[in-house]
């Protein structure tokens, strides 16, 4: 079976959702629902690396688990990959230098500087050499563009070898433009369009987070194929409120 990184090269929809509750059971429900990947958020949620590992264990072989690390940091990245994530999302990449550092942390030598440790990804040592030999080809490095500075530097970022996808973070992008939360503002949408055009020109897989089904459909029609729609908490809020309102 192709890795998630290899599947990203196909022009097909990869539909995911954000997980912020440390519950393997919720992750299993999302896998049963048919999502292709989980956006496991340890940047903004209270989850830690062990919580993320439990989610990966509950859904292994059923969908891809992509961890958003708290920052572009060697320790966070190697911990996330050593527990068996299919890839990582690196937040707040502003420059090509930031992107180079992210790729370097994700790749074993000679392509990078990822250190060798024994963890779940290596079946606790049973497949250590096999994992080392294949990890660089199978690990997805997803760069999050969520600041206007990154938009201004998008061509230089896209020139960095080893990036597998760009994912736009519209909410932080809006904040960086002084339009906090106003993701549908014309200026924010123009910035997203700049990223879209640059990625399409370079044939770089492109994604985005949205809380709206209709917005997600619109982005798919524009060439976004790595889509994270809603989250565990937003789905629970929506279902609970509809039940209370209608019953």
What would the keywords be for this entry?
single chain, 247 residues, eight-stranded parallel beta barrel, 12 helices, 46% helix
Strand runs, count: 8
Helix and strand run:
HEHEHEHEHHEHHEHHEHEH
Count of helical regions:
12
Query: What is the CA-based Rg, rounded?
Result: 18 Å
Low-pLDDT windows of residues: none
Give the overall form.
globular
Report the end-to-end length measured between terminal Cα atoms.
Answer: 46 Å
Percent helix range: 40-55%
User: Helices and strands: which structural class?
Assistant: alpha/beta
Biggest β-sheet description:
8 strands, parallel, barrel
Oligomeric category: single chain
Q: Estimate the strand proportion.
A: 15-25%
- What is the spatial order of strands in the main beta sheet? 1-2-3-4-5-6-7-8
- Report mean pLDDT, rounded to a whole number: 97
List the helices and strands and how they pair.
Elements: H1 4-7, E1 14-19, H2 24-33, E2 37-41, H3 49-59, E3 64-68, H4 74-82, E4 87-90, H5 96-106, H6 128-138, E5 140-145, H7 148-152, H8 154-158, E6 165-168, H9 170-176, H10 186-202, E7 206-210, H11 213-221, E8 226-231, H12 232-246
Helix pairs in contact: 2-3
